[in-house]
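Exam prep: given the inputs below (a chain plus 4'-deoxy-4'-aminopyridoxal-5'-phosphate), describe the expected output before reading on.
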Amino acid sequence: SRTVWINGSWLPEQEAKVSVFDRGFLFADAIYEVTAVIDGKLVDFDGHMARLRRSCASLSLACPWDGEALRALHQELIQRNQLDEGAIYLQLTRGDSGDRTFLCPEGTEPTLVLFTQAREIVNVPQGIQGIRAITCPDIRWGRRDIKSVGLLAACMAKQEARRQGADDALLVEQGFITEGASSNVFIVTPDNRLVTRPLGNDILHGITRGTLLKLAQELGIEHVERPFTPTEAREASEVFISSATSLVWPVVAIDGVAIGDGAPGPFTRRLRERYIAALREQMA
Ligand code: PMP
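Solution:
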């Protein structure tokens, strides 16, 4: 069984319990982070912790653990669970406020939970062969830049994708793709420009997205941050999604329409390979 870290204790997963009055459970008054682990090492850790601080600040949620303490917790969890490849999930809630009350009483102690998920990241068919996506309306709230645990709309979109025989969903608002249900979205236009939606309150500021834009810059790939429509995506030469646990997954069909020739394209493959090489260098 896995070891879980919960509020200062290392416990077997069966014994790690959270109160029914915890605000994460009652109100989704909580934020989270997911950091990939490859070759037993944390990927883009500083970026994930910087975003955690930002999410905390947006919700006036005090995080009693500093960056070094959080790094030590992540590293100890990797060791205890002998994690070679997978992810570390961190959730910070405003805590157990003793009853169901919207306004949190002063002095409530936050709840911090960390656990590991062993899974393959590099050698997965989705990364190599690509995935099929649907488009569906983005019905989420207005502060998607805060990595909060209210993920009902994302669960519904993924369920709808499965119902339609696809792998994932791209979300559409006011005629433009915002992001994937749990990823950012990039397209490569027929004139070989990499395009992704600019940062704002309407998307999560993906750490992987940021790293990929830097790599594109280094590789001399022309890139622009602007919104794009589902039609432009369907007619793009390449489409891919990015996230910590997928890195880069080519999207080979949208709503049953093949993208390009229906196979992962050269820009997507190059960025994926460069990213994997870069994170292995960064760790060496
Ligand atoms: N957007 C959404 C809605 C997500 O859930 C995620 C993954 N957590 C991302 C984008 C990608 O972010 P990151 O690259 O930091 O994992």
